[in-house]
Design brief:
Strand content: under 5%
Radius of gyration: 30 Å
CATH class of the domain at 35-150 and 318-358: Mainly Alpha
Number of strands: 0
Largest sheet: none
Order of helices and strands: HHHHHHHHHHHHHHHHHHHHHHH
CATH topology of the domain at 35-150 and 318-358: Serine Threonine Protein Phosphatase 5, Tetratricopeptide repeat
Shape: elongated
Structural class: mainly alpha
Distance between the termini: 60 Å
Helix content: over 70%
Number of helices: 23
CATH superfamily of the domain at 35-150 and 318-358: Tetratricopeptide repeat domain
């Protein structure tokens, strides 16, 4: 027990000192890859686009408490900023995006610098703070220009062209020039890989904006074609971009005097607004309904929606007047909270540093006593013969029930492919199964005929071979990427384990599978 306590204290202190000493070391985004965090993050992000925003924000706030590094913290700030923006709380959106921006710049996460600058540009534009918005758009374009040879360049450049189009539509109302920017966005889209995860959404956004431009240019058939093209590029949840497309289609039906069809579209938008609480959608809906009821001769409803629209515009302008002060207040509160946590952590480190000399002295005395007892025990056991490196079941005193339970749990975890976790270790597994490492080692040795490392690596290589053979896409992946996918910490460890288990290197096996595929 003393041994565990000492190791725990030392690890805490070393972690603290390592954090301080490595604070200035720049790492790439790949260094922070964490599938467990990403899976939760993605669920909340998708949920935020289609359900109640307040619920999504609470989940994002809880996720912040679980972040383990600057990259995860940055992503969570941006998730919270996005939710705030959708709900109309622009001050909080700008404050949280600013915190994310600081982390991106400090760590040189260049791709995220572009994304966050684009977000800040959009949000400042919505807050009618045009100068700040243009400043961040320029910043996004400048940073992205440095990334011309990277895989994410065309996607971020596409989003920059979209944002420029937003500026032209909302501030200049030069719809022909906006169409030119959106055509540039489509040119970037054509350069994206066909399996890019954001292909459909970015295409749909560009088409939706083209629909809006051609509507204002009076080319209603062309506008309608672009709106339907946008719909065809959207998968999944019914909300997000779809209500804005329905709103545009409703406006076209209204202009064409097809009031029944227009009403159907507006009702769909109203249902979406009730479920998403999106401020921009609410604003657009009241404006369209005011025009619709004015045309059908319902003055009372037209007046009501015009009044609601005007109130929302006034609310947004009021926010714009006070937004700088509110952003500063939120930033100050968030940073003070962070400082308090850092101070508490440093106090703990100092206390532990002061305690360590005494703890080490106790440990030294304990080891001496343990050594004497061990040497005495070994002298007694020498006469009984060697165990040839095998684990002695009687010495472990493991019960049959415990042994069966551990084996059953390991088999269950194997089905869940737990071995793909790059952070997996025997102590971590022992803790998860509420046992100790000696029992884990014994059960694996007895039932899998291997030590722990060989057993885990063997499962990983089997999975890698199965995936390479069954999934043609993996044949084009880099070895370093495959290593991470199958739980290995580096290219070298993956290659060595693959060679040990199969007698060939991963590249040789990939060539073999590629040749077999080409002849089949």
């Amino acid at each position: 027990m003393l041994n565990r306590f000492v190791h725990g204290c030392i690890l805490i202190v070393l972690f603290g000192l390592l954090t301080v000493s490595c604070a200035d070391r720049k790492q790439s985004e790949a260094d922070f890859r964490n599938p467990a965090f990403d899976s939760v993050y993605n669920v909340i992000a998708i949920e935020a686009s289609s359900t109640q925003l307040e619920h999504s924000f609470k989940r994002a706030d809880s996720l912040m408490k679980l972040t383990a590094n600057d990259f995860e913290e940055m992503k969570t700030w941006m998730l919270m900023a996005t939710i705030h923006r959708r709900s109309g709380n622009l001050a909080a959106a700008l404050a949280h995006a600013t915190l994310a921006s600081e982390l991106a710049e400090r760590n040189k996460f260049h791709n995220w610098q572009v994304r966050i600058s684009g977000f800040l540009s959009t949000t400042y534009r919505e807050a009618e703070l045009v100068e700040e918005a243009r400043l961040y758009l320029k910043k996004a374009e400048t940073v992205n220009a440095r990334l011309k040879e990277t895989p994410g360049y065309h996607m971020t450049q596409l989003m920059i062209h979209q944002e420029k189009a937003y500026f032209i539509i909302e501030k200049d109302q030069d719809y022909s020039r906006a169409v030119e920017e959106l055509n540039k966005a489509n040119a970037c889209y054509d350069k994206l890989p066909p399996d890019h995860p954001s292909m459909n959404l970015t295409k749909a956004t560009t088409e939706q904006l083209l629909g809006a431009c051609y509507y204002h240019l009076g080319e209603y058939s062309l506008s309608e074609a672009h709106y339907y093209s946008a719909l065809n590029n959207i998968d999944g949840a019914p909300y997000g971009l779809k209500p804005f497309i329905w709103l545009g289609l409703g406006d076209i039906r209204k202009v064409k005097k097809d009031y029944e069809a227009a009403c159907d579209f507006y009702e769909k938008v109203e249902e979406a607004q009730n479920n998403t609480e999106n401020f921009q959608l609410k604003l657009g809906l009241h404006k369209s309904l005011a025009g619709y009821y004015n045309e059908v001769g319902n003055d009372e409803e037209a007046f009501f929606h015009q009044k609601e629209y005007t109130a929302l515009i006034k609310e947004r302008r009021k926010v714009a007047r006070n937004i700088s002060g509110e952003v500063l207040q939120i930033l100050k509160a968030e940073k003070e909270s962070s400082v308090l946590l850092n101070r508490a952590f440093l106090v703990i480190i100092v206390i532990l540093v002061l305690l360590i000399p005494g703890i080490l002295l106790l440990k030294l005395n304990f080891k001496k006593l343990k050594g004497k007892l061990l040497s005495s025990s070994m002298r007694k056991s020498d006469s009984k013969g060697s165990t040839n490196g095998k684990i002695d079941e009687s010495a472990l005193a493991i019960s049959q029930e415990t042994e069966a339970r551990i084996l059953s749990e390991i088999e269950r975890l194997e089905e869940k492919e737990y071995y793909l976790d790059s952070k997996l270790s025997m102590p971590a597994l022992a803790s998860q199964l509420d046992t100790n490492t000696k029992y884990i080692a014994y059960v694996i040795n007895k039932y899998r005929k291997q030590d722990f490392t060989s057993y885990i690596n063997g499962l990983r290589i089997e999975k890698a071979m199965e995936e390479i053979r069954s999934n043609p896409e993996t044949l084009d992946y880099k070895i370093a990427y495959l290593a991470g996918e199958f739980g290995f910490s580096s290219h070298a460890t993956f290659t060595n384990a693959f060679k040990k288990n199969t007698g060939m290197f991963p590249s040789q096996y990939i060539r073999q599978v590629r040749n077999e595929t080409s002849y089949s």
